[in-house]
Amino acid sequence: MSPKQVVMRKLINRELDESVGTRRQKRMWGLAASGIGLDGYDLFIMSAAIPLLKDQFDISTPALIAWLGGAAVVGAIPGAVISGILADRFGRQIIMRVDVLVFALTAVLCALAWNPVALVVFRLIQGFAIGAEYPMSAAVVAENLPRRNRGKWMTAAFGFQALGMALAAGVATLALLFASDEAWRWMFLSGLVPAVVVGILRQRMPEGPRWLARQGRMDEAIESLEWLLGPSAVANVQHGIGESDELDEAAGRKGAVRELLTQRFRRRTALVTLPWFLMDIALYGVGMFTPMILLVLFASGVEADGSSLLQADIEATASAALADVFLMLGFIVNILLVERLGRIKLQVAGFIGMAVGTMTVALTAGNGGSVVWAVIGFMIFNLMLNTGPNATTYLLPAEVYPTRLRTTGHGIAAAFGKLGATVGVFLLPAALDAYGLSTTMIAIALVALIGAVVTLVCRVETRGLALE
User: Fold this and answer.
1) Residue 300, SS3?
2) How far apart are the first and last CA of the chain?
3) Whole-angstrom Cα distance, residue 54 to residue 69?
4) Disulfide engineering: 237 pairs with which of 11, 69, 274, 455, CB 3.0-4.6 Å?
5) Residue 445 within a domain
6) Residues 398, 40: Cα–Cα separation, whole Å
7) Residues in the chain, pLDDT under 70
8) CA torsion angle for 309, 313, 319, 322 (degrees, to 10)?
9) Nearest to 397 by CA among 460, 303, 446
């Protein structure tokens, strides 16, 4: 990269950082955020479908239940890593278009699954697409929205996860009411609709100017900048080209995975990987099986025949949907506070709140207390989850790395998160069976507290930071 190109790149970055949020920036934000909505939609649909799958396929082993619940999470691990590396090399947009197409196709295949093994295979592939959405959406939002309220934009984007879950709750409830024992097929098939809509709209979204400039494709970067911010931004860049500037240390270098472990980035990599790993153990361990946990609490005496199971699943799904309202409230609190308090304070407070919520459930289950308190515990957990680490672990990897490493670093961080999710999804059914609900919830509370400690030890505050 020539010195002139370095100057242009910095000027383009400055225009993006100091922008005010144009209509097209908001459109790009919405299309990036919609992929996270698909993840939330899929998470709730699977949690609602598990009891019906257990009954239809006569599944009694915790291992197979865990694979049904966790196959998509397992697939998301390589999906996040591979897509992140490819996006830093080939661009964000092509990966975003391909992964939503894969999600749509596998939604149909999951609905047509003829046995649990086929469903697990299709869910693994679908999970690959879900994992790809994390580094893509985070990079697009971070690179193309204004710096002064970037945290709010990113949290609002991640808030689409809760919107997706809320939409899925309504669809799942309708499917249970009108589709009887085959409801799970309609639940999976319903994911085709939002995926197709998102896929069509993404076809017209251009590559971001920050990534294009980092690749030295200056003509395309200027064209993209004009589309995004208007002619005045291009005029500002052209006016500033004559100013002197020094070649920065990293100019012309391509990002590499091993660079994430160098002295410059080692602490940042620990911050974005370990807390996300710990948070997703709790999130997916509790979130994926909330209807099943509520089924135990609300309907422990119900016999597992077809009609009674369906009725119990309706009640558990509705109760989980009520608790999920607090997921959206948590995102709202984060949006209000993320630029005031910063990322680290919210992440620590959120982890502590998650521990309080799960301990409330544990004490209720252990002492035979009112089920109302258990529901309150889930509400606290969901509120503090999204006030803190569920939003901030998504936000931080997009801010701590430069453009050449952004999706690579975010992809690896997301993969650590999905690895934690795999632990939660696979161990929770076995833990519930072996140790009971109370002990399992206490263990998840301890995991959350460890997440708070790790965040404090590795803290790097990125509020107001200009992106490289």
Assistant:
1) coil
2) 15
3) 11
4) 11
5) yes
6) 20
7) 1-2, 179-181, 242-255, 288-289, 291-292, 295-319, 365-371
8) -160
9) 460
- The total number of structural domains that make up the chain: 1
Taking Cα atoms as reference points, which of 340, 277, 409, 384 lies closest to residue 151? 340
* DSSP label at residue 243: S
Alpha helices of 179-304 — where are they, by DSSP H?
Answer: 183-190, 192-202, 209-214, 218-229, 231-240, 266-287, 290-298
Which distant-in-sequence residues (6+ apart) come within 8 Å of 285 by Cβ?
423, 424, 425, 427, 428, 444
What does the alpha-carbon distance between residue 250 and residue 247 come to, in Å, rounded to a whole number? 8
> Across the chain, which distance is largest between two alpha carbons, in Å?
78
For residue 464, being part of any structural domain is answered with: no
Return the CATH number at 156: 1.20.1250.20
Count CA within 13 A, CB hemisphere, residue 177.
Answer: 9
Residues near 183 by Cβ (< 8 Å), separated by ≥ 6? 49, 52, 172, 175, 176
Inside any domain, residue 258 = yes
| Contacts of 196 by beta carbon, 8 Å cutoff, 6+ apart | 104
Segments forming the whole domain that contains residue 16: 3-243+251-457
Output the CA–CA distances (angstroms, integers) from residue 7 to 12, 13, 238, 466, in the order listed. Answer: 9, 10, 10, 16
Q: How far is it, in rounded angstroms, from Cα 311 to Cα 185?
A: 18
In-domain check, residue 463: no
Q: What Rg, from alpha-carbon coordinates, does the chain have?
A: 22
At 452, which amino acid appears? A
* Residue type, position 289, single letter: F
The Cβ-side half-sphere exposure at 241, using a 13 Å CA radius, reads: 12
Q: pLDDT digits over 50-97, tens only?
A: 778 877 787 777 778 778 878 888 899 999 999 999 998 888 889 999
